[in-house]
What we know:
The protein has helices at about 5-25, 30-35, 40-45, 65-75, 80-100. The two termini are about 20 Å apart. It has 5 helices and no strands. It has about 100 residues and is an all-alpha fold. It is extended, with a radius of gyration of 17 Å. It has one domain (about 15-100). Helix 2 packs across helix 3 and helix 3 crosses helix 4.
Amino acid sequence: MNxxxxxxxxxxxxxxxxxxxxxxxxxxxxxxxRHYNTTxxxxxxxxxxxxxxxxKGRPPRAxxxxxxxxxxxxxxxxxxxxxxxxxxxxxxxxxxxxLR
Length: 100
């Protein structure tokens, strides 16, 4: 094992993991903030149920706190094991294409 080989394998794994996170959805606060193109501070504020103070700070990056709250309510949900298996089965061709 050398650094070049480790870097290549790491890049392949990162590609696969990114495809999985994109298909399944984010699992951590950091991933959720990245997925919805917002900051962790905004994500935390929304999850804590706090409204956005429109009179302060920068304008929102992609969504207002209200918009982000509505998106999270509609997209973040429990799935059954069968639903996860179905999602991952659909990823096969995408993974093969990405690693060619």
